[in-house]
Design brief:
- The termini are far apart.
- The chain has three helices and no strands.
- By secondary structure, it is mainly α.
- The chain is about 45% helix and about 0% strand.
- The model has no long low-confidence stretch (mean pLDDT about 80).
């Protein structure tokens, strides 16, 4: 069974329903092994989803939201 939108493929929205219609010919050990494989695929997908798109940020500027007057007042006492 292949998930996708082409001819002969199962749409992702209907995948669970199609899987439930299949005969239950896996024993307990085979089902557990398959479950581990599926969970590992989910972990890989989730790790990629958490990565930011584009270049990696160098670090947030903590003063980016401050207005000009407050930023200059904070920098008056500092010597570069």
């Amino acid at each position: 069974m292949i998930a996708g939108s082409d001819e002969g493929q199962v749409p992702p929205k209907k995948l669970q329903r199609e899987l439930m219609r299949l005969p239950r010919n896996l024993n307990k050990d085979q089902a557990n092994a398959l479950n581990e494989r599926i969970q590992s695929m989910d972990r890989i997908r989730d790790a990629r989803a958490n990565m930011p798109k584009g270049p990696m940020p160098k670090g947030a500027n903590p003063q980016a939201g401050m207005n000009r007057r407050a930023r200059r007042a904070a920098n008056r006492g500092k010597k570069h």
